[in-house]
Structures are given as structure tokens and as C-alpha cells.
Amino acid sequence: MATGVSVETDTRDPDEAVLQITPTYCPHRLTVGDGLTTFRARHSVGGTSELGVYYLSYGTGVTVLDPVPFDDFVLVSRPIRGRFAVRSDDGERVVSPGDALALDSHTAYRMRWQDDCLLLTLRLARDEFETSAAEINGTTESVKTHFPLDRLPSATGLTALDQVTRFLTRDALPSGLLTSAPLVRGQLIRVVVASILEAYTAVARTSESRSGGEVRPAAVRRAIAYIEGTAAEDIRITDIAAAARLSARALQESFRRYLDTTPMAYLKSVRLDRAHADLRQAAVEEGVTVASVAHRWGFGNLGRFSAEYRREFGRSPSEVLRASR
Predict the structure, then answer these.
(1) What are the DSSP calls for 181-224, one per residue?
(2) Structural domain span for residue 319
């Protein structure tokens, strides 16, 4: 179990388990299939309301949950051990370690823990999921995505989910990034959503908005001014598009045409410049580290940050920091 999560429920009483776990998820009915001697509910919680990381087990026997539709969140679940089965009107899927299952916000599910199942679940706020999904699909339209149980996720999507889950549980949670670095958290949410959409490409597409005419350079200047002024905030492409008075797709096209880049790549370059400035000024600040500067500007992976920094400025961030002192 990951460092950075806390045990919030540990009980052998099914009624107490429902009472304690319901606030995290939604109202549900719990049925213990093999008697109370094998039942033990353990629930550990980490992360935030936008992106939560949970571990949940119900003992060695079979336990069935019948929840109401989630409504305000989306789940991605993967067994660490044992088997996890989910049934809906689409059919039934049983997943074991190495597999994953996305559950949408509006389907009624029946869930079954069996074979001493320990389930790792990522919980994304529905608003965050739908906004990020729209951005990834290049539209400002809200995305209401359904994940049929009879549709298996792609191998590349499963690999992407595995990698982002490993980073969350081994790096982001133990280091406190998920709770203390809003820019990194926002990026991680988008990476998780992108991984889910990659896993379910055939069912996750949404209608694309059209650019609707040629974009003038003035709109690009408005977008650049907005990026420069808000680079320290968790801004999205839809925010930049609104500032430029364009659709998200038109904004993408304008940046490719006039700057040969994308709005988010431009934002990253601005943040890299700001990190460079902070490192050069570090002599007058107490306790400045490469990690603290990187995290301040939304770079969660220090190895990638160092590589991009050296490519841009010809020196490593640690060299610049040492030179400033």
C-alpha cells in the first residue's frame, strides 16, 4: 500500500463499514456472501477531492456492493490481489491484477470483491474528468463518456494507466505532490484522463467543434498575454481560448500557424523560463531547492524537468542553483 494514504476504516461490522465508506463514494447496499467470519473492511484514502487514491478490501470471502450511480465522479479500479467483478446492463467483467476497469458516473453497477481482493481505485471528480476530456478531444463541449463493460480497454491504454498509477502511488502521494502542488495535480488529472481515453478510444470520442474561419494574429497576442499573466495558475486550454476569444480548436490552429507550437507547449516554455529566473535569484532566498522550484512551476517529474532545462539553457538546474550562491 502506498505511503501517503491513511486508513480511515478498519472494521468487521458490515453496517459500520457502509456508514464509514459511504461519504467517500455514494450510498450503497453491502451483502456479505460467506458469513461474517471472513469479513473485514479496510479502506485507505489519499489525494484530494479532484483526484483521490483509495485502497479497499472486504476480507477473504465474497462481498457484493450495490451502489446508486456515482453521479459526480468517475472511477478507475484495478486489483492489487484477488479478483474484482462488475455487472451492469452491458454485461459483466471480472478483472485481476494487471487489468483495469473504468466506471462512469451515470451507470448503475453491481460490484463483487472475491478471492481476498484488494482494490486500488483512482477517483476523479466528474467535472474535472469531463473538462479534461473535452480539452483532449479539442473541443469546449462537455464530454459525457460511457464505458461499456463488454468493451475491453486497449493494451496501450492499460500500459498508460499502469504508468500513471505507479507515479501517483510511488512518487506523487509519498512526496505530497498530489496535495501540495496544484499545478502538478492539475497536470496529473489530465494525464489520468488521457490514459483512460486512450484505453477506451472507440467509445470516448466526442463531437469536434469547427474552427469557423481564419484566425488573426491579434487573437494570438491575446492568448500569449493571458499565458504570460497566469502561468503560475492551473490554467487550461479552454481558459486560454476564452481569453483569445476563440474556440479551443481555432486556438490550436492559430498557434500552429503563427508560432509553430501549441498553446500548452508555449505555456510550458513560459513556466520553464520562470523556473530559470527563480533558480538564478535563489541566492537571496532561504531553502530553495531544484525540486521546490520545479514543483512551483508545475514540473512533477524532476528527471524530465532537468533534461528540458538543460536542453533550453545549456546547464542543469542544479548547476544554475549552485552558481547563484
Answers:
(1) -HHHHHHHHHHHHHHHHHHTHHHH--PPPP--SPPPHHHHHHHH
(2) 275-325
Q: Which amino acid is at 225?
A: A
Are 222 and 126 in a shared domain?
no
Q: Is 35 exposed, middle or buried (0-12, 13-18, 19+ CB in 10 A)?
A: exposed
Classify the phi-psi angles of 272: left when phi > 0, otherwise alpha if psi is within -120 to 50, otherwise beta. Answer: alpha
Structural contact between residues 83 and 96, judged by C-beta atoms closer than 8 angstroms: yes
pTM of this prediction exceeds 0.70:
yes
**Residues 148, 94 share a domain:** yes
Specify the number of domains making up the chain.
3
CA angle 113, 128, 86 (to 5 degrees): 20
Rounded to whole angstroms, the Cα distance separating 181 from 298 reads 7
**Would residue 194 count as lying in a domain?**
no
For residue 254, the number of C-alpha atoms closer than 13 Å in the C-beta half-sphere is 26
Residue at a domain's end among 150, 172, 194: 172
Domain at 311, CATH number = 1.10.10.60
Burial classification of residue 182, based on how many CB atoms lie within 10 Å of its CB (0-12 exposed, 13-18 middle, 19 or more buried): middle
**Residue 234 shares a structural domain with residue 291:** no
Question: pLDDT tens digits, the chain, 325 residues: what are they?
Answer: 777 899 999 999 999 999 999 999 988 999 998 778 899 999 999 999 999 999 999 999 999 999 988 988 999 999 999 999 999 987 899 999 999 999 999 888 999 999 999 999 999 999 899 888 888 777 666 667 888 888 888 888 899 999 999 999 999 999 998 988 899 999 999 999 999 988 887 565 443 333 444 445 788 988 998 998 899 999 999 999 999 989 999 999 999 998 999 999 999 999 999 999 888 887 656 678 999 999 999 999 999 999 999 999 999 999 988 876 6
Q: Within a 10 A sphere around the Cβ of 80, how many other Cβ atoms?
A: 14
Domain end, chosen from 123, 156, 172, is at 172
